[in-house]
Amino acid sequence: MKRLPILYAILAALCYGISAPVARLLLEDLSPTFMAALLYLGAGLGMLIVSLLQRKKSEVREAKLTKKELPLVFAMIALDIAAPILLMLGLTMATPATVSLLNNFEIVVTALVALLAFREAVGRRMWIAIGVITLSGLLLSVEDFTSLRVSAGAVFVLLACLCWGIENNCTSRLSLKNPLHIVVIKGLGSGSGALLIALLVGGVSGRFAYIAAALLLGVVAYGLSIYFYILAQRNLGAARTGAYYALAPFIGVGLSFALFREQPTLFFWIALALMLLGAYLAAFERHKHAHAHEALTHEHRHSHNDGHHNHVHDAPAPGEHSHMHVHEALTHNHAHLPDLHHGHSH
Predict the structure, then answer these.
(1) Residue 126 to residues 13, 65, 242, 289, 335: CA-CA distances in angstroms?
(2) Rounded distance, CA 192 to CA 245, Å?
């Protein structure tokens, strides 16, 4: 329905997909808490440089964060401190390919939180996708089916997915604001918190080359990935952005097989097939019906060719721009996604 946001979601997945196998290599010299801190600090510092460079060139103003969004910002930072630490702990106990696939459970949590907490529309096809992905996650989580022993590494990864699923919805509420600023705040705030934890537990150590590599991985796998993810969320909503983002684990699986020569089990292949089916069902759900827009006043970057921004300017406003504007009440019928202009109930 909107190709550019879908492209942003896929780019986010490509950037993040490399993180699990590469991070596993770096964990040979870095502690999980220090590694988590470096990944987010790299993201924050990298995007801060991009933001400073863009400020000189860009003529389009983005909406700024306000005091009203502070609770969401603090929740986002706290969850982003916990999630990567849990993921790095999981990586020390499970294979990178398994961890990559388990990351898809983030789709399930994101969709459920979007539905239950933020009333984002989730159709029958999405529910089937959630069920299939959940089943796949269960297959990957059980280490021994004869005694039903749960893998400790899988549990840590699933807890990380829980944190990120909740955090994705917090970020989705902020997606109309400047995405670069959000990434910088997420990166520096979460990275500083994780670094403090690493200092308290004595986990700050490692060779310079590994530290530099972790920071660079953070720029790509967390900084650029989160930036593209936020751009996608503006138009796709939290649940569907997560569905396209499901490409990331499969990239991680392929890279893991190439780097570590892993020998996957039969259950792994079954889980892989289920993940692919679930990701497909979630990504290609279509949603169209007559719906009403209530009157709304807010600020964000927009243009006047999308059918929802029909206000008049005293002077012509070509292309994209940002300012406080009013949406009049409107009822129409078209294919749409649960972006922040389509949060109606069903």
Answers:
(1) 19, 31, 11, 17, 16
(2) 26
Point out the least confidently predicted range of 188-192, 218-222, 228-232, 289-293.
289-293
Question: What's the average model confidence in pLDDT over 223-238?
Answer: 83
- H-helix or E-strand spanning residue 70: helix 70-91
pLDDT tens digits, 59-108: 456 777 888 889 999 999 999 999 999 999 998 888 887 787 787 788 78
Tokens of 14: 């490509």
Question: Residue 69 corresponds to which amino acid?
Answer: E
- Cα-based angle 112, 117, 118 (whole degrees, multiple of 5): 100
* Ramachandran class of 261: left when φ > 0, alpha when ψ lies in -120 to 50, beta otherwise: left
> Residues, the chain, total?
346
Residue 288, sorted as left (phi over 0), alpha (psi -120 to 50) or beta, turns out to be beta
The dihedrals phi and psi of 318, each to the nearest 5 degrees, come to -75, 150
Determine the residue type at 315.
A
What's the confidence (pLDDT) of residue 121?
A: 67
Nearest partner of 206 among 23, 31, 19, judged by Cα: 31
Helices and strands (H and E) in the chain: how many: 13, 6
> What letter does residue 318 receive in the DSSP assignment?
-
First-last CA distance in the chain:
20
| CB contact at 8 A, 33 and 85 | yes
> Amino acid identity, residue 62?
E
* Residue 333: count of CB within 10 angstroms of its CB: 9
